[in-house]
Structures are given as C-alpha cells and as structure tokens.
Input
Amino acid sequence: MEGPPASACLIFAALALGLIVTTGAVQGGVFKELTTPLGHQIMRLAKSAEMRSFIDASVDPCDDFYGYACGNYVSINAATPDKDTNIGQVMFASYLRRARQILNQPRMSSDRPMETRVKYFYESCLDTSSLRTNQRSQLLNVLREFGGMPAVEGSSWDEFQFDPIETMAQLLRRYGKLTLLGVYVAPDFTNSQINRLYLGQRDDLAVRDEATSLAKKVELKMRLQDQLGLSEQLARKTAIEIIDLEAELSRSVLDRGMDRDPRLRSRLTMLSNMTEAYGSALNLTRFVKSWLGHDYILPVYENVPGYLFQLKKTLLTTSNRVLANYMLSSLLRDFEIQADERKQEEICAERITMLFPDVIDHLVYYSLEQQSPHLPTDLKLLWIDLKAAFEEMLSSAELEWLDEKTRGDVVEKLRGMSFEVAGEKPVNFEEQYGRMVVSSADYYGNVRRLLAVQASNLRTDLMRDTRSENYYDGVIESPFYLTESNLVVLPASYMQHRYFWDDVYPVALKYGTLGFILSHEMAHGFDDLSRLFDSKGNLNDTWSNQAKVGFNLIKECLVEQFSELRYSNLRLPKLEAQGENIADNVGVRISQAAYRKWLEEAKTLDSETLPHMSQTPEQLFYLGVAQSMCSGILIDRRPAFLRNSVHPPNESRVFAMMSNSRSFAEAFQCGNQTKMNPPHRCLMY
Ligand SMILES: [Zn+2]
Output
C-alpha cells in the first residue's frame, strides 16, 4: 500500500476536523498528543476513513466479498511496473524506517557489543566515495581468490586449472555461497534433535518461465557492466549463458504443487553411495571433504535425486568457462551498492537489515516493546484464546471423521505448539558473530568477513546437535510455522500498531488481522504436510486410516473448489498440495470463534464499532480479515503469480475461506441464492 504513512493519515484526519493536533509531524509527537479521549476519537476516525476508502459499496458483500472489501484498494495503491502492492510491504517499509532510526543513533557506551558492530558496519556503508572507488578492485580480488571470472579475465583465464567441484566447495567454505548444489544443514525430519546435511536440490532456483528468465538476464547484464566493467555485448552473452544454465537446473526442481511428504524427496544414505550413483563428474565425497576440510562419514540426505542427475548432466555438458562464470556470479550481489534515487541512509539501513536480520529484529523488537510495554502480553493472551478456540472446534461432534485417538494426538500437538515474535528472544550474538572484526571505514572488508563468519557457522551447525532454534534464513517479512519446532513465528514488523491493530480500535480488528494470521499459522501445523509430524517436530504419522480418509476427502473438496476459481480469466492450477488453503479454511474459523467468545464475555461493546461505519462487530471482524489481504498485482504479472506463488491470489483466498464459513453468511445475512453462501462447503476440522 502506497500513500501516506499512518501518522500522516492521522494528521490529515485531525485537520479535517479543524483541530491542530501537533506542530511536529514526527511520529513521536503524534503519539503523545493522541493519548487523550479526543485523540482516540481521531484515531478511530482515521481508521474508519482508511477502511471505507478501500470498500467498493457498489459490490454486494454476499456476491464477492473481496470485491466489496478491497474493490477500491488499487485505485489508491496501484501496482507499478516495479512492484505489486499490499499491506505487508507497507509495514515492512515502516519497519525499515525504524531500523534506520536505530542505526542513526550515535554509538553509546551503553550499546551492546553487537549493536556497536552493526553501527560501525552501517557507517562503513555510508562512506559513498570510498564505496564507489573501491568496488571493482575489491570484487576482483575476491574473484581472483578462485582463479578469476573468465568473462573478466578473457584469454588469460586458465580453463585447464578450473575444477568445478573444488571451486563449488571453496565458494561455500570461504563465503557461504551456494552455486549449483543445494547444501543445507537442517534437523533430521525423523528426529528433530539432530542436524543433518541435505545435499542436492537448490530450493531457491526460480527461473520457471520466459518472463522471469528475461528479467533476470537484464538484471545480471546490468550488474556485470556496472560492477565488472564488461562491455555490453560481453555482459549480455555472459548473462544469457548464466541464466540459461540456471533455468536448465530449475526445471529439475520439484514442483511446489506436488505432495510435500519429505520421504518422497529425500532419503538417508552415505556419501560414498551418492558418489557411486553420480560418478566422478559430481563427486560428492570430494566436495564435502573439501568444503569441511575433513572426511564426513555420517549419513546425509540425498535431496531430490532427479535434480542431482540433472546436475551431473549439466556438469558434463557445460564448458568450464560458463560453469566458472555461473559460480562466481554468486558473489556479485554482496559487493553491489545500489545507486538509486533513495538516500544513502535508506539504502544502507536496508542493506544492514538484510545482512543482520536477527540483530536488527532484536533491536526493533526492543524499541517496539519500549513503546508499548503491554504488547507482548497482549499477543500471548491472543495466542492462548486462539488455541482454546481451536481445541473447542476439535471437540465438535460434527467432526465424525476424526476418531478419538487421532483427535487426542492432534490436541496434544496443538497444546505443545508455541509462538514467538521474531526478535523477542535474546540471541547469543557473541557466539555467532563474536570473532568478526568490523571497521567503520572498510565496507567491502566487512562484507567479506561477515560472509566468512556465516560460512563458518554453517559448518559448525553441522557438528551441533540442534540448530539452537535459530530459524533465520534472511529477513523475516511474513509469519510462518516451523514444522520441526512446532513453532509459529510472527515478524517483528507485525508488532507495529496502527496497521493491523491499536488499543483504541475495535477488538474485532485485532482478531480479524493478527488473530487470523496467527490462526492461519497454527492451522499449518495440521495441514497436509505438517500433520505427518508430531508435537516434537518428528515425522511420525500416527493418524488412523479413518482419519486419513476423512482428511483427504475434505482436502479433495478444496482441490476441486480452487481449481474451479478464476483469476483475470485464468484458471487456478489444480494442485495436490493444499497447505495454504487448509490454513485459511481453518484459520478464519478459529479466529472467528475466539472473537465470538470475546464478544460473549465483553463487559461493554461501546468500542466495537467505528464512526461512520454501520458494520456490526462480526462484520468488522470479517472486513478486517479481508482488508489485511487487499493487494494490487499488475495484469501482466498475474500468469507468473499463478505459476510461482505458494498462495492462491488473495481474491480467491478471501472468496473460498468466507464462502466456506457459515458464520460469514450469518454475519452478512447472505441469502441462499448468493455466491458467498453456497449449499455445499469444504470444512476442514
Ligand atoms: Zn500459510
């Protein structure tokens, strides 16, 4: 969502009322002034104005609830050729502003060692003149540690000295770079207490269609020209070769819509067996030994044999020059400093957030907690309410297919599930980054040392029993459920108020937004993949046959329902994996049940409506759910979205979850002939 930030909306609303709220248009000033009853009223007016601005009143909510709730969203927050729009993005932009404020504070003696380090790192990034002068030579130095990049070195590059397996291993060992092979250290899916090495598919390869491929080629070509000074012609040729190679490998990556049972993609074996299977071209024993610096004799997961066979073929049929260009291009992004219209401070704050997602989350969490000390407790209480509501749903007599024993297992897992906000836990940063030297005058040196520390941490993780609950694999922008830990994680950016919730907004909105999001993640624990895992996060399918048959029938109902839906006249793909649809289907009913319970017990409902809005509390709840999903995606990008996104389009998600919910039809008094109140529903749990 583009447009004014929340504080600007408030000022606008206040001006509309003829009130001068504050002289300083800074957030802190507004917060202070708005803690009075009049201030509360202004904030409620502002929320009402925002919600009404998204509604298209010409659409009947019983006919198309997304069209009603979000119909005018894109006229205010239009997608652009650069990006799509949604509320998550707005919250993340605000999170980055907060990170920037923290990084801009002068270093103080009270700063913790980690805070001092990230501030030094940030300072080194602000030093633009040295950044520009040194960029090419620093990058070339790193590339030459690996024999240099053929595209740069030209005829002096020695093709016969190049050893693909060794280069792949050393890029991973020194700078943590994944190239052709996916190398992951993750809990064993049959025993979450121990870490295993997963060797094979690169899960992040995403060149699946022509449009993505073309965009990636253009982006890489620019990078090769800017960072390495290649001629346009050479940059284009090199970019095409690299992206085509990636596309070839991508085609062997398992499809997202397939059955996600890990037993179907990985099997435990010994490195020697893998080396026998894939031969000397893909000698994995040698690769692992070179990466770790010693032999490795414990079992490893062979992760997607189809991918490994393709990789072997690629290694045998691709020239060393192209392989080397491909592998070394993995370092370009780390040594890039974007030059766009933004201030250097913004660019650097974003860069530091990407480099230290866990540290920045922790600092932002701390600042948000200072601002609203009651918030962590509120969230925990909400979580407890949601859990209780789900447990009650599970005991319903309507769930005939869920026999007593299986129900008991489900409840046990639910009770054992935990929740946290990313950044809330004190992390032992000294253990992770303690050895790292950071200089305020050497940005590229800092990057190199950070990559080296992360590379070394990956090797250490393999030797450890568990990954010490560190779930960071980059910036956390969306909530998720972690199967191996039976844990729900909410991004720190979701704690910011004014977006989803506020103390003065109707409680309906808190349950409709945060409540729904947490319930959706909670329900993931019982979707078609995670239901196979027990409360300890181990693959342990204890369900009775009767329960499995019942579950699969409802899942099939969802498969059929979604495959009938359309998005801009495109049919939604028919997918076997239904995790997201199950999570929505169950999640909205959990949060609605929890909210209804809150309503029954509430002493007063005075604040459960919004000024100038006629919606009942229950209607506000559903409006909150739908409006948290308003989004804008350019028509041209929709086919690629359908192919690549794990979620169906939000239009379809809102349609399916609301039309599957009886309470929705009751809340909006939808007649039997309306689309949102169909005679048949798919109801999971
Ligand atoms: Zn989900």
Observations:
- Residues 579-601 form the longest helix (23 residues).
